[in-house]
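Lecture notes, unit on protein representations.

Consider one protein chain, 219 amino acids long.
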Amino acid sequence: MTNNNGLGSLIQTLGVEIAVPLGVYYGLHSLGASDFTALALSGVFPLARTLFQFAKHRTLNGLALVVLVTNVVGMLLTFVSGDARMMIAKDSIGSGITGVVILISAFTAQPIMTKALRPFLTHGKADHEAAWDRLRNNGRFATVLRRSSFIWGVGFVVESAARVIGAFTLPIATMVWLSTVIFVGSFAVIMLIAGAAAKEAGEMVAWEAEADVKQLVAA
């Protein structure tokens, strides 16, 4: 997987998870559907897509599993309560729970965001992939990756709190699009900060790959 492919996949996912639900909500709302109905139907497609991906590949990494569970539980709670504001808040709460899980994982041997970072730092190059594997037991390398996961976790928790507050204080029609703006804006900021924090790990991978090449040439 190349860096461009990873970025393209990320943009495609954001389009499906954000653009489609927004279009469905405002389209149904313009046709006279209630806030609750429009919001409920707008959330069906992303949930169905997640379930389809699981059925197709039969695998879920830790982060995907958290997102799936929070989506399902959130949808069930929303339908039971019948509250449109809860429908908006469920996604915010879901990202908050995801942030907490990522944050906790940052203090374990397997930070969740490490798998997501790998293709961006190795650029899909075989020598960089091999260098990554050799660096797994490097304490400094592990610390840098852990720090990046910590930033993602804190970032998601903060943006979640902001969206939950907005969901219960601002007009529903306003919060539908504003929630998306907060999420996308926060995601971009978190990605930049976490990316800068992980830069050292990328340099370590490059140096390790170069050192291996020099050893092979010398041999």
